[in-house]
């Protein structure tokens, strides 16, 4: 038995088709026999076969050849019988593709199966009887049924021999289809009185086998007819006629079909009386493009003649294109390069001529196109950039139409998911944030929330929030606030004091879960709102311990005389620092008043001799903090931030020097306070 032979190898360049190779092997090789080293012949390394999950793609239900990835070779998988696979068709070949993934590629492989002489020629019957009149004339022909050898080529039936040849000789005629028709010709008249029965042997031989049969045969004529495929049963295909020179009952002719080894008798019938050949079965051009009918005409005397009726089946456009998905991806990354192969398609139309020509296209408005690799093969490739955020899925309809009239078409819809790539950074809802918090807050208090979104998907869209390192007045910002990594909620870490810090800012980073991660940041400004948590402080007159502040008022003081001025400040801000002065107690309320806004103590009438020498005044300083001092809140007056100062007034007639000294002291303290505090307390 011969081993496999490599016929040819050609390197091609058709998109995803990168090569084709052909092998020749004899039939009947044992299972596991080597067909060829496909890796070597295609220039592939074993690692590529394994990583690409190399496999065989074939439309045939039976797979006779298998691929061993680890060795890179093709092996016989099942016994191959050329006669069962191809019958008498030559050449006989297996066609398949080697498919690889990541990236998609395919290679066309042809394995031609050669014949070995493993079948002897045979007759359908080993005996055959002819009844021949002794009056048969010399030259009368009798057709022998043809012997059959299922082998082909030089292994087919070669010759016939007849023994003995006393009365008959054999004549062979070669048909256009390569078959031989054998006639037995009478060369010596018969004499029934001398020999009632003659036994003859016919030997049939191919190069290595011989068969025998006792029988007799005839001559052949050829006729042609046509029938359109799918014609209804009963359609008349042809009519054959024969004539007989004899008269009487011997001239009655009957017709028959003598085919034995094919399906002719299942498709055609001949009327034995009139020779009309009709359809009794289905004709399908794609299954059989023609039939050869062996017809025999026989008379009552046993004389026969025969002819061949060649019936050609005419093709109709009755087959839609068949779309076969050889390999496909259901998911493709959104960063796939242009011309990335997504699907490989094989399209077949069983019709012939223009009816079998097929054009394929894809639905509009998709970033994919079909490229024709070779005849009947297409690849679906990317035609533009993909963006999962714009379209996460495509339904791609591939439609294939033939050129028949009317045109037939088929379509298939491919669903393709676009997988995510981390190509989008998180985006905050605002370009910057501002938030307020009232001082004296509880540590851990939630201030507000920053929010960022990511257009990517799944892990790539999972956002975490991070407080970026910075400082506030030399102190790490993390000692003031914290950020929840999952929710973006900003919490106060400590209790804030407006009098120490009025506002501060920091940056929050939003980072996704991609690899590598993408991020963006935003500036956050926290402004602290004042709370009325500080009482006013009296700067003048200065009180030490529980002592009273003494002031002197001349008895000659006129109405509106400035006795002194109470000066106070409040470190709070806004209305919390607006101060008001009120006279709470006085020895004589009709003698003095206090300016509500400026704290000036003045006389409101002329001092008289009847007035007590010692006058005692208590002045209260209050701020304007919230809540406002309603009547109800007055009942809780003790809770309102305030300060009290008590002054002792002496009514006498001081000397001129004493009055001058008092005026100088007032001027001194007034100017001293102003210089020290005018920048800090501009409202005073």
UniProtKB/TrEMBL annotation:
GO terms for cellular component: plasma membrane. This is Cadherin domain-containing protein. Keywords: Calcium, Cell adhesion, Cell membrane, Glycoprotein, Membrane, Repeat, Signal, Transmembrane, Transmembrane helix. It is found in: Cell membrane. Residues 622-641 are annotated as: Disordered. It is a single-pass type I membrane protein. Residues 1-19 form the signal peptide.
